Amino acid sequence: MTVNSRGAGLLGLLLAGAVMLAACGTGPGSAPVEDRRTSVSRPVMDPNTVAVKQPPGFENAGKVGYYTVKPGETLIRIGLETGQNWKDIAAWNNLAQPNQIEVGQVLRVTPPVVAAESSGVVSRPVGSASIASSQVQPGQASSAAARPSAAAAAAEPAAAAESGLSWIWPVPGPVLAGFDEVKNKGLDLGGAAGEPVLAAAEGRVVYVGAGLRGYGNLIILKHNNTYLTAYAHNKTLLVKEDQAVRRGQKIAEMGNSDADRVKLHFEVRRQGKPVDPLKYLPPR
């Protein structure tokens, strides 16, 4: 069959167009093929990833009434820093082994308040026995008998009046070193070995021992829900934990335990924060 020149030209154009369409469909610029099958992405686990164990109570970090344990701290130290009895802290946190606390652990340091389920009445906080208890040791005068005269009360510093406590100097010796919130969190008072150390105000013994580094033989008294006092470097300790003491009662004898000389290191703590004892002690 014979094809004229006009038909040949038309046939050539059609063939060329078919070749170009084929090239467009297979080249690198062609539209991607859409795969409509559903695909599920699966996370890739790093075999080197190790789950981090959070310390107990971490969810309460930063909350009011809670304390995060720092390196080297003990419950005794935490009790002093927060103004609480270390035994209460152990009870509030259900610590079977009070000495086994870890850095970063978050502890409750205020009494939990238990609300009655039906009446809506809130019970008293769970804590240590009342400081105002009348447990006076045999041969001791009552706390009322230890109260100062009206003239002495009038001379009390404003901070002492605000505290609601009657204060005396724990020893009569001179001030060897004054209060400094960073370097010396109390007063260093001079005296002789064996000299009586007196309770600066009535209260209850919350710690007796030598478990706080830098304090030697130490006694801590809790006077109310706000104030603690600490008596350090003693030679002899004459009271027991949970014992009620009256203002002016002999609780220890001066010494130089964990100190470079015989002295009494005396601290006043307001809600755990060290404050200048001179703002509470009567003027000499």
Question: What do these coordinates show?
Answer:
The chain has 284 residues and is of the alpha+beta class. Among the domains are: 58-108, LysM domain (Membrane-bound Lytic Murein Transglycosylase D, Chain A, Roll); 148-279, Distorted Sandwich (Glucose Permease (Domain IIA)). Helices cover 17% and strands 20% of the residues. The chain has five helices and twelve strands. Helix 2 crosses helix 3. The model is unreliable at 21-35 and 115-146 (pLDDT under 50).
Properties at a glance:
about 280 residues; 5 helices; Glucose Permease (Domain IIA); Membrane-bound Lytic Murein Transglycosylase D, Chain A; alpha+beta; two-stranded antiparallel ribbon; about 20% strand; ten-stranded antiparallel sheet
How are the secondary structure elements laid out?
Elements: H1 5-26, E1 66-68, H2 75-82, H3 86-92, E2 106-108, H4 150-154, H5 158-163, E3 175-177, E4 187-189, E5 196-198, E6 203-209, E7 217-222, E8 227-237, E9 244-245, E10 250-254, E11 264-270, E12 273-275
Antiparallel strand pairs: 1-2, 3-4, 4-11, 5-10, 6-7, 6-9, 7-8, 8-10, 8-11, 11-12
- The arrangement of helices and strands along the chain is HEHHEHHEEEEEEEEEE
Taking pLDDT < 50 over at least 5 consecutive residues as the criterion, the unreliable ranges are 21-35, 115-146
Query: End-to-end distance, in Å?
Result: 139 Å
Provide a count of the helices.
5
CATH superfamily of the domain at 148-279: Glucose Permease (Domain IIA)
What is the average of the pLDDT values?
80
